[in-house]
Amino acid sequence: MAFTGLMGSNPIPGVYQKSGDMSRKTEKVEGMAEVAPTKEIRGIVRIAGRDIKGETRLRKALIQVKGIGVTLDTVLTKIISAKLGISRNAMIGELSDEQMDMLDDIINNPHKYGVPERMLNRQRDADTNQSMHIIGTDLTFRVKQDITNAKDMNTWKGYRHTYGQKVRGQRTRTTGRTGMTVGVLRKVMLAKAAAARGAEAKGAAPAATEEKKSAEEKKPVEEAKKE
Length: 227
What we know:
7 helices; Helicase, Ruva Protein, domain 3; mainly alpha
């Protein structure tokens, strides 16, 4: 409905033209909504042994995988976006099976796609002498295996791991208490000793009273024997 001016029934040109443009835009949007295809989005997507919701954006999905931090997530997102030809904000539930296979290969072998060696978490491995990046449950298993090897070789790090202490030279005077420390243990021992002394004192008082009574009872008998 067009607006009218104060001087007559003629509509105001600017307002009338604007309302007409809005109506035409609305018609275009409605037509586009009818033509635009709808993509099927999977509810759960499994990446590197981790279940992630299909509505999660690509740039936020990779960081949920164990072994991928913020910096590596940014680099891998750029590589995946370029290789698959998708946006960084694309939902992972929209990816096809072929695209998911390509994504798994990129995050499992990032060095093949130009990721520098300094960003890998396994540089010059002791067994293979090769640099690699481990993610998911493989990373958890490999860390436990490294700690076990350090304990078996009786290294300083293994010694610290054995006693549950910090490994990388952090201070332990005020932080890092992992059990009954010396100060806490001393307080507990003093409390137990005080409780034991109190129990002995309570037990000694009735014993002394009984001994006194028995001595008083024996006294007339001894005096009678003397007479």
